[in-house]
Structure formats: C-alpha cells, structure tokens
C-alpha cells in the first residue's frame, strides 16, 4: 500500500491562496508606471493599502469625525468606540494579556523612543549596558546613542555571521549582570533575517535584563505572540501591515508600563492638574497618549489587521516564502550578483549588490520598466558597512505579489544590468 502524503500547514495554505482575488482589494496595483504595469516590490518600506482600509477614512470623516474620550455627544461616543475597538483588536493580534498594554504611537520609531525616554531615562545610568544587534534599523540605534550620551551607560553590539544571522554564542557572552536591556529586531529590514527572539528573551531574563523587540518587519509576515516570546516591550508600525502611515503600537508588560513615568505631557494623559499641588496622571494606556491622536489612522489600522486576519497571517507568510525562494533561485544565476543575507530563517526580503553596477543606477533604471524596488542603506548603515558595501538593492514581498511579478522583476533586472555594465 502506498504511503499517504501528509501536507504541511504551510503547503495547504499556499495551495488555497488566491492571490489574484486578493489583488482586487488593492486599487493601486491597477496603475501603470512609465507605461508599464506597476510591479511593487518595496513592501519592507511601506506596504500598499486595501480598499477596505482606504474606505475607513471617508467613513470616519463623513459620518462621525469627533475627538475621542472627552465628549458626551453621539459622534464622540462613536469615534471613541471605534478607536478603542482597534486597541482590543491589536491586543488579540499580538496575544497581549490586556488591552491596556497597547499604546498607540506614530510608529515603531516613536514607540522605541517612548521606551528610551520613559523607561530608559529613569532606569539607565553609568555602569549599565544595553545590547543591540548589528542588524538594527537606525530607529533602534540612535535613541539609545542619544540617551547613552546623556546617562553614561554603555552600548554593546551583538555581531552577525557571514550569512547575516546573529551570533548567539557572542550574545550569550555579552550578557552579564550589567545588562539592563536587550533591544533587537524580530526581522531585519535590510536582510530579512528572522531572529530567535524567544530564546533571546529567555537568556536576557536569566540575567535580570529586559528585552525590547522591534517587530516592524515581523508583523506583516508571521503570527506574533508577545506572551510566548515573553517580550517586555514589542513595537510595530501600521504602514507595514497594509494600514496607514503615522500610526503604530507599543506593547509593554503591565507592571513596567504602570511604573514608567509619562514621556509627553498634555491633554488626555492627566488625572488632575493644579497650580497648587501639581499634576497627577491617568492610568495606562492613556498616560502615554498625550493630546489628540491619529483617530482615523488608528481605526484604519484596526481594519488593516482585520483584513490580514481574514487572509490569514500564516498564509501570507507561506506565500511570501514561495516568492522569496523563486526570486532567490532566479537571481542566483546572474553573473556578478551577490545576495546579502542568506540566513536559514528569512522573511520575504531579497537584498543584493551587482558587481560593476551602482545600486542607485539599478533602482532608477528598473523603475523605468515599472518595477519599484528600494536602493540605499535602508537605515541600516552599520550592518551594510559590516558587509563592505554602502548600499544594496532590495526587493521585498507582500501578500499581493505574484510569481509573474517576480519573473518580470528578474527580466527587468537582467536588462538593466546589461545597460549599466
């Protein structure tokens, strides 16, 4: 009797994945660039937005545009309910314990700065150490450098190997009783490397340190469970998960958030204000949400997460793995092309340089053929310098990309390389 074939969940997801039906949700994918159909492969910078999310803005501004939390009238109630519904959706999306652990920010960058300026300013001093990795985006480097210059603590860097994977043995050796925080990305925006953040969190906690995870590049591609990771802080951005720009999320463990001082002052984050006895502050999450927030953007973020969950986050990740494998195999035969980032665990990012061709020239010329990729240092200059380059070309994939688009990209890349060499 022949053995039965048992499909893995990822294989079943890919088999049932209807990318053409999904693409109909994205009106921008119908446009042309320089007379060519748009092939958008700059998703690690910003993903495109489905019509269902776009419609949130028209609905909000035409039906219930009002400030939240403070008003007693109907529009304020409706806006508040929609805003807070997103908080509960994010709680579920990250598997947080409590919706109060979800802080709305302008993006991952502001979320990291909030932790640095609130927790870091109150907890870090000379003699302490913060570990960050060579893989970090500038938004998870510069805030700590600014604070270190003021507070006197030391920043130490976790190295990477030749494949762009973190050197975990070096990480273990860097950890000590002086380590107060590990700040690391879940997925590298420049290389696509997926870091073992759950293991890193466990090791950090063994030394009494906290861990902050930059999840901007992870949440678009995989299911994130902050409780399973045991992250102390986790941040992501709306515009990476098919939502709007200008909105993001900071998750923090409740005890930490409650103990942290406010970062910004103003309306909404107070309990009482007095010239005589000073100000007392609201509880979490409002203590960290001073002023009028990006109300429509937050509501739209909730709709974007709903869209992702409707497609299936794991299904999206499985499809992107197919695209990445196809693209990697296709470009590997191009003479003089070098892929940066060949770690065994990767998200849908393909970063490369071509001998004898400047990355900027490739980016400009391939755009003339309708293909949008990213060129430059990707806000990861220390990492690129480590690999001996100033810039790379980066193609990054999302839920709506197709195998035909990958083939179009590779054909355009071959044509452009022939022009610039």
From TrEMBL:
Keywords from the UniProt entry: Pyridoxal phosphate, Transferase
Top EC class of this enzyme: transferase
InterPro entries noted in UniProt: Aminotrans_V_dom (IPR000192), Cys_dSase_SufS (IPR010970), Cysteine_dSase (IPR016454), PyrdxlP-dep_Trfase (IPR015424), PyrdxlP-dep_Trfase_major (IPR015421), PyrdxlP-dep_Trfase_small (IPR015422)
Enzyme Commission numbers on file: 2.8.1.7
Record's keyword annotation contains Transport: no
Domain of life (superkingdom): Bacteria
Catalytic activity: (sulfur carrier)-H + L-cysteine = (sulfur carrier)-SH + L-alanine
Segments forming domain Aminotransferase class V: 39-409
Known cofactor(s): pyridoxal 5'-phosphate
Role: Catalyzes the removal of elemental sulfur and selenium atoms from L-cysteine, L-cystine, L-selenocysteine, and L-selenocystine to produce L-alanine.
Family in the record: Belongs to the class-V pyridoxal-phosphate-dependent aminotransferase family. Csd subfamily.
Protein name: Probable cysteine desulfurase
